[in-house]
Amino acid sequence: GVTLRIDVPDADAMHGFGVRLGRALRAGDLVVLTGPLGAGKTTLTRGIGEGLGVRGPVSSPTFVLARTHPSLVDGPPLVHVDAYRLGSPAELDDLDLDLERSAVVVEWGAGMVDGMAESVLEVRIDRRDDDTRHVELEGTGPRWVDDQQVLAP
Ligand code: ADP
Ligand code: MG
C-alpha cells in the first residue's frame, strides 16, 4: 500500500488533516489510529467527522466503546471506536459494527482489527518533544493500493 509521512505542527492542523481524510473516506473504509494517550487520535477523528459531514460532536467514546454519528450529507456514518479496554479482536468483533455501510475509525486499534476487513488504513501518531506530531499513514489492501487522493497531504 501507499505510505505517507507528514508533520503536524498543532491541534488545528491535526483537525484539518482529519477533515481532508474524512472527505476522502467512503462506506466500508476501516481506519486504525495508534499513538499514546494525548497523541491526537480523538482530535483527528473529530476532523474526520467534519470531513464526512456527520451530525453532532465527536467526543472520546471511551465509556461506550463505540459511537455512531450519522451523516448529514448523504455520506456514510462515522463509527468511532475506542478499543483501549477491549481485550481481544473477538471483543471488537462482538460489537457487530456495520463495517460495510460505515466509515469506521478505531482508536487503539492496532492488533485488534486483524481479519476484520480486506483493507485497512493505519494512522500512526508520534508525539515530539516540541509538542508537534509526526503522522505516518499506511494503507494496506486493495482499497489503498494506489489511492493517492486519500493519502495526499
Ligand atoms: P488522544 O485521543 O490520542 O488521547 P486527544 O486528541 O484527545 O488525544 O488529545 C490531544 C491533545 O493534544 C489535545 O488537547 C490537543 O489540543 C493537543 N495537541 C497539541 N498539539 C497537538 C498536535 N500537533 N496535534 C494534535 N493534538 C495536539
Ligand atoms: Mg482519544
UniProtKB/TrEMBL annotation:
SUPFAM superfamilies: P-loop containing nucleoside triphosphate hydrolases. InterPro entries: P-loop_NTPase (IPR027417), T6A_TsaE (IPR003442). It is found in: Cytoplasm. It comes from the Bacteria. Keywords: ATP-binding, Cytoplasm, Magnesium, Metal-binding, Nucleotide-binding, Transferase, tRNA processing. NCBIfam families: T6A_YjeE (TIGR00150). This is tRNA threonylcarbamoyladenosine biosynthesis protein TsaE. It comes from Amnibacterium setariae.
